[in-house]
Amino acid sequence: MKRLRPTLTVLSAALAGLASTGCQPSDSTDTAAAVPAEAKSAQPQLTVTESAPPQEEPKPKHTNRLAKEPSPYLQQHQHNPVDWYAWGEEAFKKARDEQKPILLSIGYSTCHWCHVMERESFENEATAKVMNEHFVSIKLDREERPDVDKIYMTFVQLTTGSGGWPLNVWLTPDLKPFYGGTYFPPEAKFGKPSFTDVLRQIADAWKTQRNDILASANDISQRIGESIALKAKANIKLDPLWLDRAVSQFKSQYDPRFGGFGNAPKFPRPSLPLMLLRHAHRTGDRDGVRMVLHTCDQMAAGGMYDQIGGGFARYSVDEKWLVPHFEKMLYDNAQLLHLYLDAHLISGEQRHADVARDILRYILRDMRHKDGGFYSAEDADSEGKEGKFYCWTEAELKVLFTPEEFALAKRRYGITAHGNFEDHSDPDPLKGQNVLSIVDPNLSDDERKLLESANKKMFAVRAERVRPHLDDKILSSWNGLMLGAIARAAVVLGEPKYLEAAEANLAFLQRELWDAESGTLYHRWRDGKRDDVQLLDAYAFLLDGVLHLYEATLEPKHLQFAIDLVGTMKAKFYDEANGGFWQSVHTQNLILKVKEDYDGAVPSGNSVAALALLRLGKITDRKEYTDMAEKTLLLFSENMTNGPSAVPYLLQALDFLVHEPRRAVITGDPKSGGARDLIAAAHAAYQPNKVVLGVTGPVEEFAKTLPEEKQSAVYLCTGSACQPPTSDAFKLREMMASKTLP
Question: What CA–CA distance (Å, rounded) separates 590 from 658?
Fold first, then answer.
């Protein structure tokens, strides 16, 4: 992404020396930097512990209009003295009527540094007074409105070189940005300005040099629009060589010691290793396969993985995967579930299947609504301390364990009196905290039994601690990712309970977030109410999940729902002229229309849509789906050639397009034992370029012509050629595993 040089010369002079002190790592940029240690926060200490007698909660001194908002993130700010508004016309009208600049502050409810800035600045009466006097202050949940976040994150990235959350951007009353950054400290330190310094300087510049600011904001908004505008190049053809070049770049970023791709902080970003594994397996690249499996093993051994409760945190602050920011996100765990299923199919190792099962143990235990929806995230903090729920001191484990258990746990997890984690955002951090990681993987059978006993004790004690905050909103987009992962896990691991969870999840989404009459999919549900937001990510991610569920069940109703989703997705988001899909239909209060292409911590809606459309096109033999996907790939061709690390999921779609996939067509009743065995066999070998389909419903014409026989059979086809049918599940598995078909 090319960095823009701001044209705000007048404002820059007025704000001489003012800049963000840095930001926590962002899943929307590869250039973000960690918050420096000198930007430590003034975090209030909680005096109530879980062992203290219950105390009556003090009545809040302030309650603002965010108390009426459904977003858990906005509700966290309802008692700030800041006169917060939600994103909407009420705030925009006030800014226009009073000709005040807008301070847009974006974050999410499980964001650690968002909490830090709230405690330091937004709960401060003096700071709030400045904000209320000079600005219209808006709080936005970036998980609910990634379309809004994308525009202003792009501005900050292009003008500062990095991005992250909390994201703080100053806008004109017509919503055009003119200044921004991420985390600002409460006091000027080490040559850095305080947040209130920034507020006062911007307020003064707005009063004295407003016309210059408005002109500059118009100019930079136009240039941002130009920087993200895309038109397909003429006479370009999709080239398989792009895949080879992309994989070479991925491999050059590999960390041979600790695994992963890139330096600290390390994000799992599963779409990159998934693409590398796909390519390496097909080309016989053992080195590429080794890189991915080593990365999987290192992540699962590190502290980013919850060794006691299962599931992964969002990222590691170091290169070793040791110390995480402890928040757990639904989208990470969904994608990592796919990665560990693939690792298991490639390696045949039980340890990779065990990680997949542990992810689902966590999701189904802690992240599932009673009616089947999946919650969004769990916080890094509990009782005002990051990681307190997850960490252990040597002293408490000595009391908890028998001497034998303690000696083993100390060796296994690297427990020390000093600890390996300290929260540098806290001026009074807890001491001696240990993040559990696997330091010694070598255990005898007797030691494994002893470790299981110790782990059960830790889990029981941890369950009594004050849990981190749960963001209990249910997003159709992220649920779509988890739906597909669980459906696939059901057939790969042979676990019917996972299939039951997937079916329940889809039923919940269809009941609560899908309007069948209008064909509309909404984005967020919470406390019995849904929003009115429609985003490409919701349609594309759910389409992907429904297709995985169809391939696991061959239920015609699921295939029909996928087709219904595509119908609305095309009508609302597809650009017939240039290809690609717009991120949002909400153009009234957006200064730009955006086609998202970056496959970061969450893949882009365009990438997921392209691959899902190609799969659906092969299942139904509908050319319009393939054409939409191919036109989307052409639109983003420059990114695949010149910046492949930004679009690894999109490259998976290209891989699927240029390498003819196998079609396993299974006859008979999909609920019969024979059909179930064949479905499982079709998924039992690593073969990412495949589709699995039945013979009823809106499938391809060839499938509909196959004879209905009492015993289920499978026809394995590539293009127009099919192998002789077989009812032997073992033979099908061998055929799927074969690099080539006769």
Answer: 36
In sequence order, the 6+-apart residues with CB closer than 8 A to the CB of 298 are 258, 259, 260, 320, 321
Strands 524-526 and 529-530: antiparallel
Q: Which residues of the chain have pLDDT under 50?
A: 1-10, 12-54
| Complete DSSP assignment for 20-82 | -------TT-SS--PPPGGG---PPPP---TTSPP-PPPPPS---GGGG---HHHHHTTTSSS
Of all residues in the chain, what percent are helix, strand and coil, respectively (each to 5)? 50, 10, 40
Cα–Cα distance for residue pair 36/39, rounded to 1 Å:
6
Which three-class secondary structure state does DSSP give residue 502?
Answer: helix
Quick one: how far is CA 373 from the chain centroid? Answer: 17
Query: Can you read off the two tokens belonging to residue 13?
Result: 């002079």
Listed in sequence order, the DSSP H helices in 312-402 are: 330-347, 350-366, 394-400
| DSSP type of residue 194 | P
Instruction: Identify whether the C-beta of residue 277 lies closer than 8 Å to the C-beta of residue 346.
Output: yes
Which of 191, 203, 52 is CA-nearest to residue 137? 203
State the residue for tokens 């999987």.
Answer: 296
Q: Which of 473, 465, 394 is nearest to 434 (CA)?
A: 394
Which amino acid appears at position 522 of this protein? Y
Q: How far apart are CA 275 and CA 493, in angstroms?
A: 22
DSSP strand E in 482-576: where?
514-515, 520-521, 524-526, 529-530
CA distance 664 to 732: 9
List domains and CATH numbers for the chain: 9-45+60-228 (3.40.30.10), 260-472 (no CATH), 663-737 (3.40.30)
> Which two structure tokens, joined as six digits, stand for 711?
């015993």
The C-alpha atoms of residue 85 and residue 66 are separated, in whole angstroms, by 7
As a whole number of angstroms, the distance between CA 392 and CA 91 comes to 45
**Span 690-715, pLDDT tens digits:** 999 999 999 999 999 998 778 999 99
pLDDT at position 11, please? 52
Phi-psi region of 45 (alpha: psi -120 to 50; beta: other; left: phi over 0): beta
Distance between CA atoms of residues 340 and 337, nearest Å:
5
End-to-end CA distance of the chain: 45
Residue pair 532/476 in contact by the 8 Å Cβ criterion: no
Bridge partners, 717 (sequence order): 663, 722
Report the C-alpha gap between 530 and 214 in whole angstroms: 37
Task: Answer yes or no: are the C-beta atoms of 483 and 542 closer than 8 Å.
Answer: yes
Digit-coded pLDDT (tens) for 147-200: 999 999 999 998 988 899 999 999 999 999 999 999 999 998 756 689 999 999
The amino acid sitting at 375 is Y
In sign, the C-alpha dihedral spanning 615, 621, 623, 625 is: negative
- The string of DSSP letters for 216-246 reads HHHHHHHHHHHHH---PPTT----THHHHHH
* Residues 277, 294: Cα–Cα separation, whole Å: 12
